[in-house]
Amino acid sequence: MDTNTLLESSQKKMQHSVDHTTNEFHTLHTGKATPTMVENLVVDSYGTHLHLKEVAAITVPDARTIQIQPWDRNMIQPIEKAIMVANIGLMPTTTGPLLRCMVPEMSGDRRKELTRVAHNMAEEGRIGVRAARQEMMTLVKQAKKEGRLGEDEMNHLEKEIQKQTDRAIGEIDDLLTKKEKELLGV
């Protein structure tokens, strides 16, 4: 068994969970408009499902406005519908070939609710990291059982995988702390 390959695989799986958590955090808005709030919304485009960023240009002309310009004018209604169905607190208004979404000021209760959502997203990320850890530990123990690894190698791998786990969970915790500050900051 190649220990470097196993550790690389473990790192990639854990990093995937961290990256996923980061992307999830980008969907939580703090009262300031960002393209990431809408770019991954799924739009029905002529019978296929595409992300909004694939059918329109998304810009932020000011801190409270998201502007969406579809590349095909016939996409205005499907984009508007996707925004409404997503229930992200934005009301699109159509102005000629553009859609504009005003980002509302957030209340204290809404900020606390989004903080709870962020905690749930972080926990999902931690669960992903722990699942990757468990999968790798199972592979290590199986290799030991089959005689492909010695006792010392197994112990070394288990320690390294645990270090990777601690590092990934630490990254998620840091991301959560930053997002909480962002959400609760006025």
Tell me about this structure.
The structure is a single chain. The protein is α+β, with helices and mostly antiparallel strands. 58% of the residues lie in helices and 17% in strands. The protein has two domains: 102 residues, Ribosome-recycling factor (Topoisomerase I, Chain A, domain 4), CATH 1.10.132.20; 68 residues, Gyrase A, domain 2 (2-Layer Sandwich). A four-stranded antiparallel beta sheet has the order 3-4-6-5, with helices on one face. A two-stranded antiparallel ribbon has the order 1-2. The longest helix is centred in the C-terminal third of the chain and has 38 residues. It is elongated. The protein starts with a helix and ends with a helix. The mean pLDDT is 89.
